From TrEMBL:
Belongs to the aldo/keto reductase family. Residues 31-266 form the NADP-dependent oxidoreductase domain. Keywords: NADP, Oxidoreductase. The record marks K83 as: Lowers pKa of active site Tyr. The keyword DNA repair does not apply. PROSITE patterns: ALDOKETO_REDUCTASE_1, ALDOKETO_REDUCTASE_2, ALDOKETO_REDUCTASE_3. This is Aldo/keto reductase. It comes from Lysinibacillus telephonicus. Substrate binds at H116.
Length: 280
């Protein structure tokens, strides 16, 4: 059982990745962003997920710098993720994009760097760049985001190093069984973005009934379900009380029956783009 906010999963290359982190999708540069990341660090979060396309890496970098100074933690205590955007996919362009992200974040290395979307005809060259960055020690782990099974199979035909992480949309309405089964068989850690389906599940009657049973919120039930399914998760919030609440999922465990009840809510419903039909 995952027992606290600092608990980690071990990637196949022995790098330890926190099970729970904070995401900053759609949080604009400014005090709200800086404070959110600092709240997370203060309250025990050790994983921070951003991306070039979010256009907030500078604020995240500032928050990390201030958060570490205020808590006395060291850089090595944090697990920082960013992603290369579609327009930068390619060998040289990915290497350049990585350096830009690193500079904005004011860091010497990243813990995890991901290809954000599987743009056909481009992701293999980008992956070669990630392999180079990994070999050079500029990133501790490399992976992909939004890759379906056929994308992963195609990538691994030519890859020298297989992805360590696949970050995908995952929530009770989109349980991604095929992707998760493939990743498990290939030692690729699945990570959830939009675990709360951008708020679409927060009044779901089945989830509310389960939440009442455990005296928890629906959000806490979903995040606990993620963890019990072996999925790393990065809920987004900018409010301090919500950041604290999202982390209060380590003092209870869902029964197998409740886990299965939530699994059955799947409708293959996406709140984000379909990786196979995304206008890149």
């Amino acid at each position: 059982m995952i027992k606290n906010l600092q608990d980690t999963t071990t990637l196949y290359n022995s790098v330890k990745m926190p099970w729970l982190g904070i995401g900053v999708f759609k949080v604009e540069e400014g005090p709200e962003l800086v404070n959110a990341v600092k709240y997370a660090i203060k309250h025990g979060y050790r994983s921070i997920d951003t991306a070039a396309i979010y256009q907030n890496e500078e604020g995240v970098g500032q928050a990390i710098k201030e958060g570490l100074a205020e808590t006395g933690l060291s850089r090595e205590d944090l697990f920082v993720t960013s992603k290369v955007w579609n327009s930068d996919l390619g060998y040289e362009s990915t290497l350049a994009a990585f350096e830009t992200s690193l500079k904005k974040l004011q860091l010497d290395y990243l813990d995890l760097y991901l290809i954000h979307w599987p743009v056909e005809g481009k992701y293999k060259d980008a992956w070669r760049a990630l392999e180079t960055l990994y070999k050079e020690g500029k990133v501790k782990a490399i992976g992909v985001s939004n890759f379906q099974v056929h994308h992963l199979e195609d990538l691994m035909k030519d890859a020298e190093i297989k992805p360590m992480v696949n970050q995908v949309e995952f929530h009770p309405l989109l349980t991604q069984q095929e992707v998760r089964a493939y990743c498990k068989a290939n030692e690729i850690q699945v990570e959830a973005w939009s675990p709360l389906a951008q708020g679409q599940l927060l009044d779901h009657p089945v989830l509310q009934e389960i939440a009442n049973h455990y005296n928890k919120t629906i959000a806490q039930i979903i995040l606990r379900w993620d963890l019990q399914n072996g999925v790393v998760t990065i809920p987004k919030s900018t409010k301090e009380h919500r950041i604290v609440e999202n982390a209060d999922v380590f003092n209870f465990e869902l029964s197998n029956e409740h886990v299965e009840q939530i699994n059955q809510l799947n409708k293959n419903h996406r709140v984000g783009p379909d990786p196979d039909n995304f206008d890149f």
